[in-house]
Specification:
Helix content: under 10%
Number of strands: 9
Shape: elongated
Radius of gyration: 15 Å
Largest sheet: 5 strands, mixed
Strand content: over 45%
Distance between the termini: 26 Å
Mean pLDDT: 91
Order of helices and strands: EEEEEEEEE
Amino acid sequence: MDSEVSVVWRPADFGGTDAAVVRVCVEDRCEEQRSGDADHPIAGVSVRLPDDIGAVTVPVRLKVTAARDDRVVVDDSRRARLTGQHPNGASCSPEAWTATFRADPAKGLTSPEGLSLQ
């Protein structure tokens, strides 16, 4: 498990297959991904962070642009408080620091809670 900030979305929310490019930046680290196949329920992109980053707050920026004409569809930012994850149990390595958001076409970066896989 890696320390990272992840952003997930429903490809259908951003039009047809690969209709948009989703770019996520955490501080000066950025990753981007095409919006995905509208027939698949969930897509996502993650920005890897240093493993020893700890329980800090980091700035997260989301920019979604239309693939056809580079029109900005979503431009949003939030601060994320990283939380510790212990995939092998509380007393075992590794410890990863993570945060997850949902990319929503109307609201920008939101909580992924309740994101349906349907």
